[in-house]
Amino acid sequence: MSTLTSERLFNRLYPNTHKHEKQFGHLSSAIRNAETEYRKECAQGNFLFSSSVAAPYGLDKRLMTLLYDYHLVQSSGNTEYERLKNGRNGERLCGYCDIREAETLDHYKEKARYPLLAVAPSNLVPSCAKCNHNLASVDNKYHPYYDPQLPDGWLRARLIWDGSDEPPGIRYYTTRSAIGDKRLRSRVRDTLYGGSIAARWIVEFNQSLRALYRDFYDISNIDERKQIVEDTYSRRLHVYPGPMVATKHAVIASRWLRKWRTA
Ligand SMILES: [Zn+2]
User: Backbone phi, then psi, for 206, in 5-degree steps?
Assistant: First the structure.
């Protein structure tokens, strides 16, 4: 997460604010207060808080939206915008799905309802366009900055196979044992299902299952099959470890691997 504060960013976007002290002074302090409150609530895990910071009298919400859309994204702040899209280790992966490139910044607290947080860096999560769009109606989201990194094995998968000659399908789920904190688990679930992330993983990994289907067709030895699975899913492991590891374990543990065309 960037150490840049929204007030400093705001002053950079509007470099001549000192000339309009009266007009911007109240706004600048409201932005600072809103961000302080946001950081405090998020640090305590209260992601669904409603802000108690009032917008300055006469503030048109559109001003803050324009500040984001125009000044930060397209104009004077674009260098900051690009910098904010760099997530962990300078990688540009979406903070929610971990599979696509971060093409945008998602407002964790949406800017239409929380205009004072429109340019708060701690409220701006690197995100792919799909997650940004799909998560728009999800309030109870996983917070890539304030939530803990999820433990190994947080995601599980299970193959769906009816015993026929068709390739298997796959489903993803989280378990109580892997994510003990109830509220964190609900945020992860709302993000995966509300944001259609699990559905996109299914599409992505069905392709690899079809490739395995072709490989397994003429190989009935179970150990050889397991080795193929290891090779298939270790190649891109560093790219998106959660669903990749879950898929690998699901295939290795599956009835399909042990029973299909092995008799
Ligand atoms: Zn994404």
Answer: -60, -30
